[in-house]
Amino acid sequence: MSGNDTSHASGHLHLRPESKEPYAPDVLEQLRTDAAEVIARYPQKRSALLPLLHLVQSVDGYVTGRGVSLCAELLDLTEAEVSGVATFYTQFKRHPNGEYTVGVCTNTLCAIMGGDQIFDTVAEHLGIGHDETTADGKITLERVECNAACDYAPVVMTNWEFFDNQTPESTVQLVDDLRAGKEVRPTRGPDRVCTFKQVSRVLAGFHDGLADQGPGAGPASLLGLRIAKDNGWTAPAGESDSTAAPTDGTEGSK
Amino acid sequence: MTDTLTPILTKFWDAPQSWTLATYEQHDGYRALRKALDMAPADVLGAVKDSSIRGRGGAGFPTGMKWSFMSPPDGGPRYLVVNADESEPGTCKDIPLMMANPHALIEGVIISSYAIGCEHAFIYLRGEVVHVYRRLLRAVEEARAAGYLGDNVGGKGVKVNITVHAGAGAYICGEETALLDSLEGRRGQPRLKPPFPGAAGLYARPTSVNNVESIASVPGIILEGPDWFKGMGTEKSTGFGIFSLSGHVANPGQFEAPLGITMRELIELAGGMRQGHKLKFWTPGGSSTPIFTEEHLDVPLDFDSVAAAGSMLGTRALQVFDETVSVVRAVSRWTDFYAHESCGKCTPCREGTWWLRQIMNRIENGQGTQDDIDKLVDICDNILGRSFCALGDAATSPITSAVKYFREEFEAGMHTPAHVLFPPEKSVLFDVQTKETSGMVTA
């Protein structure tokens, strides 16, 4: 491998020639309509850059050359400025991403609780390493940093949905199911895992209507509450109790 | 006497569809907003100040004081930016809070915006939690439809809008000025201070950046009063907080308690250590806070007591490790993390974490040299206090504290790999089919 191996994860933003092919007119029109909506959310349009890069990934599956050019044009930036931002953040992909990103947490706590074994097992099973994609284009495997679910360690994220309390076996099953095209349900998330492109569109701020699916909290999140209820422990009473403020009858439900 | 646990923000996380507006209103939701709108903004700010609540994002700066340090109104925009970039290793309180009870944050944002004169608030959520993003987007929609957001909040002519913004994977964006740069569409790198965000923050306008839990605590303070809040916790660390236990306890989980609870009490609530094992070391507030050992089990978990014992309360991210764990392996992995997440802006952190990583990795592999421990401590000394932001300082905390309490394990790293001294399969939470891992080195 040469020192300029641009396929390497830590390489610079490598733009394949085909990634600069123009968008089809209808795709471009939709992108411009969506982008206008994103830009309108902010007092200054440059703030729209991160969501717009998510939007590009929702169409192209990674940050393409044409996507960089479009963001630059829409926000009055240079392509270098856009690329500079795109290369800073790990969620922006520099080469075509799999349909599902499977991220095994290998930060200290999850690693020690079993994340290292999970990563090694799944990597061997799939025959790929960190930031590599299976030949069928289904799975991109990653080591991820702490994803704020340590009480469910070891944790695996699939397209940024939580798979709690994993084992090497459960994760192998997960990737096999994903590759077989089966619907896969996260522990705490919607009824099924969406594709990388679908999730990227949500991250651009476009709601997919799945917020009401899945649980509010998992068992570990509820542990303290359950113990408090068992013991009759509560927060002290405050002003609202003594004043017994009347409700004005506009409450959403009874 | 306050009860051991005080569920407030977590109170109805077990309700069916706990995240909806309907559930929130069944539990006094938006009553605090109605009360606040009947008060003058200065009085709302005053109440938060009176509560003495200190920021829940790690640094512990008093929230009300932060607000009052903002430059006075000059007719131009003022911003509230909620830091929902929860990424500190071990920290897992804001994400479940926003998933189960997003309206507590939304109501807090509206009241806080009213208090500081902000008409457009932002919630900067890390991008790696898509379901939480859905819940926040939905909560904003519901609040807007109910008239709690928009140009005429609660029919009082108050204007507040919220944009929920997803990041894209960068720990450094939890640093408030890096977060602001990121929100402005730039690489997330910290800014030189002063000017502080209160004078020149988002778009160079007066801005307050506050943690999720701090803002979500505001409705309670307004509805129940500052004295209610001060009735919990300690004199200088008032109120309650969510304590997150993870790792080798029997039952990891979230515990909402007055500040000042001890680790001994919390481990007991978590069912003790996992069966047959004993505590070795733990972090009080995430990987960036110096580690503690068994001798610190009775330190009250409030800002000042933890600081006096040589660490920081941080985010109450209590990661627990038992005697099967190599402290060298744990610290080595955290060091990998800091080197990976260093933004590259300042030399001590960019270069220093790179060197720390080389040395930690060779000690972990049993290939440390005679002077490596001194070199580690020396590099830490050169990073601490000399880097642009707290990330560099944080990178040194696990190393210097681990050397202090477990120096002999670092010394052993001159001849024996950590995985020989502490076989990793003994630490995992599932049954391991014994199999040689690739690259296994024998001593």
TrEMBL record, chain A:
Residues 232-254 are annotated as: Disordered. It comes from Intrasporangium calvum. Its EC number is 1.6.5.9. One of its GO terms (molecular function) is NADH dehydrogenase (quinone) (non-electrogenic) activity. This is NADH-quinone oxidoreductase subunit NuoE. Belongs to the complex I 24 kDa subunit family. Pfam families: 2Fe-2S_thioredx. Keywords: 2Fe-2S, Iron, Iron-sulfur, Metal-binding, Oxidoreductase. Gene3D superfamilies: Glutaredoxin, NADH-quinone oxidoreductase subunit E. Residues 240-254 have a biased composition (Polar residues). It is an enzyme of class 1 (oxidoreductase). Its cofactor is [2Fe-2S] cluster. It comes from the Bacteria. NCBIfam families: nuoE_fam (TIGR01958), PRK07539.1-1 (NF005721).
From TrEMBL, chain B:
It catalyses: a quinone + NADH + 5 H(+)(in) = a quinol + NAD(+) + 4 H(+)(out). GO terms for molecular function: NADH dehydrogenase (quinone) (non-electrogenic) activity. Keywords: 4Fe-4S, Flavoprotein, FMN, Iron, Iron-sulfur, Metal-binding, NAD, Oxidoreductase, Quinone, Translocase. Its cofactor is [4Fe-4S] cluster; FMN. Its EC number is 7.1.1.-. It is an enzyme of class 7 (translocase). Pfam families: Complex1_51K, NADH_4Fe-4S, SLBB. InterPro entries: NADH-UbQ_OxRdtase_51kDa_CS, NADH-UbQ_OxRdtase_suF, Nuo51_FMN-bd, Nuo51_FMN-bd_sf, Nuop51_4Fe4S-bd, Nuop51_4Fe4S-bd_sf, Soluble_ligand-bd. Residues 328-373 form the NADH-ubiquinone oxidoreductase 51kDa subunit iron-sulphur binding domain. Transmembrane segments: none annotated. NDH-1 shuttles electrons from NADH, via FMN and iron-sulfur (Fe-S) centers, to quinones in the respiratory chain. Belongs to the complex I 51 kDa subunit family. PANTHER family: NADH-QUINONE OXIDOREDUCTASE SUBUNIT F. NCBIfam families: nuoF_fam, PRK13596.1. This is NADH-quinone oxidoreductase subunit F. It comes from Intrasporangium calvum.
